[in-house]
Design goal:
Distance between the termini: 45 Å
Structural class: alpha+beta
Shape: globular
Strand content: 5-15%
Strand order of the largest sheet: 6-7-14-13
Radius of gyration: 25 Å
Number of helices: 19
Largest sheet: 4 strands, antiparallel
Helix content: 25-40%
């Protein structure tokens, strides 16, 4: 994909024709340059459109927050999980009141339509782009709150601003899907890096159809399948890791839409890496009797805030050396022949807190074989691309997460849960660039976020096929990512329930740290039955109601346990009201067209 650096003139940094006032929809005119200038040429119109991306794309790249709502990624110091989860209830509005961005989208559509100087091809593409961006704004809102305040025109000062919610979730999605269909019809098949095209609209539609089906009970599944089948010009990337770092940012054949940042104005502190990389130095390593020392002292000196869990790692399958089938790590022949599960009293001395051992499982080596080699060998290739684990190589260093290892959870200050260290004894590797001389806050770097890609679209197609009961066809789809990205043999599912189990695992290991898992769990809970452990539709979701886990491995790698994460405010309780977030109470109070009866159920 061609590299394109957008430089926005300052004159367009303020929204031309945008409005801002005390009225509910924030609409006082404040234009600095004439609308005739902005919409007179493709280049000036493009400047306004491109600036609008900055108002939207952040909603689709907040991967950390969404994954930390699940057990995929765990906050590493006290106070974080409960604090962050409740922010969405109490303070965040999930873009619900983002009428200024909606207005920008409507301005694009309205002003381009009225332009007498733009060519027809330019008008068609720009109007379609405006509708795609508007669909993105409203889908982000709808997947949080279901109903939205839909505004599809440029409101004037004498318009009525006290607008009500859509009458139903179905009405919300009918508008979003109409915008997406219009975008598909009008967008070009190809675009410069960082800008939407027809394939991006198709990819988004496939996911919107799944969410709409789950929350309305209507059948949009064939539309999802057709959307994925219509994607052209993209293929799965055999270099899964490179797709998320500097190697494949602009060259990956799989990325349909990325969000690109230039090292001209981006440092590591302005990327996800700042909260994924730990803070460690050789003095701390020596002071607490850990090893090995880092070849480059202070190589990792960032502000780690979250780390991947054992819950996620369990889903990366192992290839059994005897059967050549993909199995769970503790079910492989090589593990069972060389290790055994033991009672907790055999490993309880390894725990920092007795509560870590609640429902824990302990293991010892039978014959001197190192346990880390047994549990981390022969894994799904995506594991090595996504997770830094005990005794792996990264940044030219040997990283050890065992007891007394250089990145063990207690290796910085002697106890877990402090000082930006990996509380789960894992570290994210996915989306960590190779930065010279080190990934430090003030070191400048290019960076990108993958927003839409073919692998994710294929997951959407597989889910739609499962909902149609075509589980064999769905397994053919997931076998594509299992093989190309994971290096795994084909699924051996023999019925719909087994197919759902394989699909849910595949989606999780295909898309961690891409803002997907939380929303997928909600959809699956809405479906119920095979999609949610045989439970009725809209029941409790077990994956959102279970503790986060981590591995504790002895220094000699002869003993280990899988225990429950402590030392953070990590109390997890899923209540069914969380299928939807609340309509922000401030919006209800400020809008005369709304009342408390408009609030979502149980809020």
């Amino acid at each position: 994909m061609k590299y394109n650096k957008y430089i926005l003139p300052l004159l367009f940094c303020s929204a031309l024709g945008m409005q801002s006032c005390d009225d509910f929809l924030d609409t006082k005119p404040a234009s600095m340059y004439s609308e005739e200038l902005v919409w007179s040429t493709r280049s000036t119109a493009d400047a306004f459109v491109i600036q609008t991306y900055n108002w939207i794309i952040g909603k689709y790249s907040d991967f950390k927050t969404e994954d930390c709502f699940t057990t995929n990624s765990i906050w590493v110091y006290q106070g974080c999980p409960g604090e962050v989860r409740e922010l969405k209830d109490r303070g965040w509005d999930f873009g619900f009141g983002d009428f200024e961005t909606v207005r920008r989208c409507n301005l694009i559509i309205d002003k381009v339509t009225a332009s007498t100087t733009l060519g027809e091809k330019d008008k068609k593409e720009l109007i379609a782009e405006g509708k795609m961006l508007r669909a993105m704004v409203y889908y982000y809102q709808a997947k949080h709150t279901g109903r939205v305040i839909w505004v599809d025109r440029v409101l004037q000062e004498d318009d009525e601003f006290a607008l009500g919610l859509t009458s139903s979730i179905e009405e919300s999605y009918s508008y979003i899907l109409k915008d997406l269909d219009d975008a598909i019809d009008g967008l070009p098949a190809e675009s410069k890096a960082g800008r939407v095209n027809r394939n991006a609209a198709l990819a988004l539609k496939s996911e919107v159809c799944l969410t709409a089906s789950a929350y309305t009970g209507k059948d949009y599944y064939q539309q999802a399948i057709d959307a994925v089948d219509a994607i052209e010009g993209y293929s799965l990337d055999s270099n899964y890791e490179g797709m998320f770092n500097q190697d494949g940012a602009y060259s990956s054949p799989e990325i349909i839409l990325g969000y690109y940042k230039s090292k001209d104005n981006t440092n590591c502190g302005g990327t996800m890496m700042q909260e994924m990389v730990p803070n460690q130095n050789n003095d701390a390593i020596k002071n607490f009797g850990c090893s090995p020392e880092m070849k480059t002292d202070y190589l990792f000196e960032a502000w780690m805030a979250h780390a991947p869990s054992q819950n996620l790692v369990d889903n990366y399958l192992v290839i059994d050396q005897l059967t050549n089938q993909a199995v769970l790590w503790n079910e492989s022949t090589q593990f069972k022949n060389n290790a055994e599960e033991v009672s907790i009293n055999r490993i309880e001395d390894m725990a920092y807190d007795p509560k870590e051992l609640v429902n824990a499982k302990g293991y010892i080596s039978r014959n001197g074989t190192r346990l880390n080699e047994l549990i981390y060998g022969n894994r799904d290739k995506r594991f090595y691309a996504s997770i830094a684990y005990d005794s792996c190589q990264f940044y030219g260093e040997t990283l050890t997460f065992c007891q007394k290892g250089n990145l063990h959870r207690s290796a910085r200050v002697g106890v877990p849960g402090t000082s930006h260290m990996p509380l789960t004894n894992y570290m994210w590797r996915k989306s960590v660039y190779t930065v010279s001389p080190r990934p430090f806050v003030d070191v400048y770097t290019d960076y990108h976020y993958v927003i839409f890609r073919l692998g994710r679209a294929l997951m959407n197609k597989a889910e739609a096929l499962l909902r149609q009961g075509k589980w064999q066809d769905a397994m053919e789809v997931i076998n594509q990512t299992r093989s190309v990205h994971g290096g795994l043999p084909a699924s051996t599912a023999t019925n719909l329930q087994e197919a759902w189990t394989d699909y849910k695992r595949e989606r999780n290991v295909e898309l961690p740290l891409e803002g997907d898992y939380y929303w997928s769990l909600l959809r699956w809970g809405k479906y119920g039955q095979e999609a949610n452990h045989g439970l009725a539709a809209s029941s409790i979701i077990p994956e959102l109601n279970c503790p986060a886990t981590f591995p504790e491995i002895s220094k000699d790698r002869q003993r280990m346990f899988i225990g429950q994460v402590q030392f953070t405010n990590d109390q997890r309780e899923f209540r069914t009201r969380r299928y939807l977030f609340p309509i922000p109470q401030g919006v209800i109070n400020a809008n005369p067209a709304l009342s408390d009866s408009d609030q979502n159920p149980e809020w």
